[in-house]
Amino acid sequence: MTGEMQGYLLYALSLLSLGGIYAILALGLNLQWGMAGLFNAGIAGFFASGAYTAAILGTPPVAGRLGGFDLPMPVTVAAAALFSAAIGWAVGRLCIRLRTDYLAIATIGIAEILRLIVRNEGWLTGGSLGISGIVRPFDGLGPPRADIGYLAVVLGCLVLVYIFVERAGRSPWGRTMRAIRDDERAAAALGKDVDAFRLQAFALGSGIMGGAGALTAYYFRFLSPDATEPLLTTFLVWVMLIAGGSGNNRGAILGAFLVWTLWSSTELVTGRLPADWAANLAYLRVLLIGLLLQVVLQRFAGGILPERARR
Amino acid sequence: MLAFVNFYLIPGVIVGSIYALGAVGVSLIFAILRFAHFAHGDLMTLGAYLALSLVAAAGLAPFLALPFAMAGAIVVALVVHRLFYAPLANRPTIVLLIASFGVALMLRSAIQLLWGVQVETYVQGIQRPLVFFDDLRIAERHIYIVLATVVAIVALHVFLTATRAGKAMRAVADQPELAELSGIDRKAVVRQVWVIGGGLAAMAGVFLGIDGELDPNMGWDLLLPVFAAALLGGIGRPYGAIAGGYVIGLAQELATYPWIGAEPLLSPGYKSAVAFALMVGLLLWRPQGLLRGREGT
Amino acid sequence: MRILEAQGLIGGYGAMDILKGVDLFAEAGRLGVVVGPNGAGKSTALKAVLGMLELRAGSITFEGESLGGLSTSARIARGIGAVPQNDNIFQGMTVLENLEMGGYLVESPLAPRIERMFAIFPPLAEKRRQPAGELSGGQRQMVAMARALMAEPRLLLLDEPTAGLSPAFRADIFARIRTITEEGVAVLMVEQNAREALAIADTGFVLAAGANRFTGSGAELVADPDVRAAFLGG
Ligand SMILES: Nc1ncnc2c1ncn2[C@@H]1O[C@H](COP(=O)(O)OP(=O)(O)OP(=O)(O)O)[C@@H](O)[C@H]1O
Ligand SMILES: [Mg+2]
Q1: Of B88, B224, B273, the CB nearest to A297
Q2: What does the DSSP assignment read for C118-158?
């Protein structure tokens, strides 16, 4: 394989892997927003808490930082999901019965606090140095096989999460959830414990986001406070879900891959431009993605794959 | 004691003023349009940068650039409303929140495009504070900030309680349908809300720049304390929002004072967590806000 | 003179029609009363007149001109006043401010009109600086009506102005409504207390399931055995 060919292959693999991770995030958000109508503006916070959990648990010992557990990936990803779910549960306990706007604001707060902890608690997170030395499962194979292997891991996780949320959505639990979203009072009148259902959906969604965070930490093999720009992660996931079709899991996945392809292919363009142009174009594309969201909200309220009317 | 006043109390009042100005807008927008305006912080940033352009181009003092910055932010707020919020008028209000989230990112990236990402200041060099009674140090700019905030709040109060338009705004906030049945033009009220909200946001942004420096994230970073202030005051209640702004500003600065021993009570790195902690505490204790808030919805 | 003529109103809030053919009219200086069971569509019919409802069919004329296509505020500006069933006062505003909002579209000075309202509803005079939300139930209803009257409408629509009031207060409110009518205003009032309301009505409309069941003079309806059996509890 020529160098150029391999370059394109690696690019495609990276696109698909990150697209897959975003798809998982979008599924998590779909559980919260699409099914339960719970607004989460702190996706990055749940994502980061999962990423750091996995990074701390999955790396060999380093002086001056908690860690050295060197646990295998399946364990760390599960732990990341559990930890983020626990945070989601705690936030939900406090805020779930408030109106949506308040929950939205509270989730910004959680993301902010997690960001502060990551920045200030060097003994835990490595501070601004971050955490390096994260080893992917197939790294021994060398590129591009290691990347193919990792893509398989990501897609495997995506399929698992998809099956899980689809099943959950079709189950009596999912039907109740949507009933609550559409008419809270009627559901409460039927004797459903509205807050408990919402709390479950919020914690589950947060857990899924944490798992996606863990996958990202492995993907980059390195984690730093600004490895992911928090606001942008949150925002991109929202655009993905809304564009794909909130309430529809396939829509969420499709939206994630589409928006991610759009997003990173513009990076391909900007990467070839002179440096100062490149920087400007990077901002321009945020502007355009924002515009895309507005167009979808105004013209295609249901997204590409709107939620099917069930029952 | 004077160190306490100079380094904790005064900064608390200053950020409190800034939060109050932002929170009033958030609160009014919520009262009339019923959504949490996520782009409010970026409206502040915009105001700060508009003033920067005038300061740099015309050599104006930041305080003199303020009216122009306010006018510019008002125009942008009205245009944003027309393009991105008004078309969603018949949808659930949460859709407006999502749209405003998008607008926040759009405004920020536009600012990054137009002004770049490097940190800027209005005035170079050290500014000497005025010294009163030997040791009480108050920077001139801080005096202006507080005075201007007081003037803005009094003007708002007069508007809301003594003018026809202001009362109509309160009426729409109180009972939108009944306001319509009284012949009040809701669209006009909405426009006025953006004029007030946008203007005060620009003011807050310029003051933030005067007090420190400008960077494209400055407004978004303020969103949490500003929302917390609006919530603390019982969202939808402008006077509550002002009180909330000062409570959060003071709490945030005073929490880093070495109350016990020589160490700061709270590490300054966690300052912005204070707003969140207060907000969550309040939501648990009194979901309707510090003052008696509006009920329902 | 029929100042309002609404015919064949059909429409609702979504796919389902709530009004299935309602006719209403109002005459200057006369009191029309609309009665019927809960959910009959009484409030909905008033909303239709006010333009707060999409109609699929029917015509509404006010003072000889069609109201079709006019917004609510345009209808208010034409001279229609309304007191909705719920949320009919600005709770956080003072009595005086409530009246001022009622006179929002009035160009002349409001002071004489406000004094007139205090003459019609004397208990409000001393409460003028109190938030309306802090008043008693009867006084709130007075504020609600006074707010609507501030614009000196030629047609006044009242949706259950005595809801939740004791019989004594109800009689009091009815008396004031008669006063308003006598000044030449056309009043159309929805009432739960059908028997009492029809007794003072010039015209009565009995609605059920979104359509007129009986229409006639108040006295006729009260005397009609069918109306009595079905709607007035025998
Ligand atoms: N905003 C609305 N959206 C959907 N349906 C509504 C709405 N308002 C009323 N309805 C329905 O329309 C029907 C008629 O309601 P309406 O309020 O006109 O009844 P009403 O005769 O005034 O009854 P009541 O005596 O209880 O006031 C009811 O079945 C009600 O559930
Ligand atoms: Mg009714």
Answers
A1: B88
A2: HHHSHHHHTTTTSBGGGS-HHHHHHHHHHHHHTT--SEEEE
Please answer whether residues A111 and A88 qualify as being in contact, where contact means their C-beta atoms are separated by less than 8 angstroms: no
- Domain residue ranges in chain B: 2-116+133-285
First-last CA distance in chain A? 52
Question: Which residue's CA is minimally distant from atom 9 of ligand 1?
Answer: C44
For A251-262, the three-class secondary structure string (H helix, E strand, C coil) is HHHHHHHHHHHH
Q: What residues of chain B lie within 8 A of the CB of C105, using their CB?
A: 182-183
Q: pLDDT digits over B119-151, tens only?
A: 999 987 666 666 667 667 778 889 899 999 999
Which residue's CA is minimally distant from atom 1 of ligand 1? C13
A100 sits in which H/E element: helix A100-120
Residue B112, H or E segment: helix B93-115
Average pLDDT rounded to a whole number, residues C209-228: 88
Rounded Cα gap, residues A247 and A31, in angstroms: 8
Average pLDDT along chain C: 92
Q: How confident is the model at residue A311 (pLDDT cuts 50, 70, 90)?
A: very low
Q: What's the rounded Cα separation, in Å, for the pair B99 and C162? A: 43
Q: Which of residues 64-93 of C touch B (CB under 8 A)?
A: 72-73, 76-77, 82, 84, 87-93
Which residues of C fall within a CB distance of 8 Å from B167?
93, 97, 100-101
Domains of chain C in sequence order? 2-79+153-231 (3.40.50.300)
Query: Does C91 sit within 8 Å of B183, measured CB to CB?
Result: no
Grouping H, G, I as helix, E, B as strand and the rest as coil, residue C25 is strand
Residue B114's closest chain A neighbor by CA? A280
Sign of the Cα torsion C49, C50, C56, C61 reads positive
Q: Which residues of B135-149 are buried (b: 16+ CB within 10 A; e: fewer)?
A: eebebebbebbbebb
Question: pTM of the prediction?
Answer: 0.91
Beta bridge partners of C59: C7
**CATH for the stretch B2-116+133-285:** 1.10.3470
**C203-208 vs C186-190, strand pairing mode:** unpaired
B280 contacts A105? CB cut-off 8 A: no
**Interface confidence (ipTM) of the complex:** 0.91
Cα of C71 to nearest chain B Cα, Å: 10
Ligand 1 within 6 A of CB of C209: no
CB of C192 within 8 Å of a chain B CB? The answer is no
| Residues shown for chain A | 311
Per-residue pLDDT reduced to its tens digit, A129-159? 888 888 888 888 887 888 999 999 999 999 9
| Cβ <8 Å between B280 and A102 | no
**Which candidate, B14, B1, B15, places its Cα nearest to that of B272?**
B15
**Domain ranges within chain A, ordered by starting residue:** 9-228
| CB of C42 shorter than 6 A to ligand 1 | yes
d(CA A103, CA A91): 9
Ligand 1 atom 18, closest CA: C41
> By the CB < 8 Å criterion, does B182 face chain C?
yes
Distance C55 CA to ligand 1 centre (A): 15
Mean pLDDT of C25-30: 95
In percent, how much of chain C has pLDDT > 90? 76
Decide if C51 touches B, using CB distance below 8 A: no
Residues near A174 by beta carbon (within 8 Å), at least 6 away in sequence: A35, A168
The letter for the amino acid at B91 is R
Cα of C51 from ligand 2 centre, angstroms: 16
Cβ atoms of A225 and A128 closer than 8 Å = yes
Do the beta carbons of residue C137 and residue C169 sit within 8 Å? yes
- DSSP secondary structure letters along A54-77: HHHHHS---TTSS------HHHHH
What H or E segment, with its residue span, contains residue B179? helix B176-181
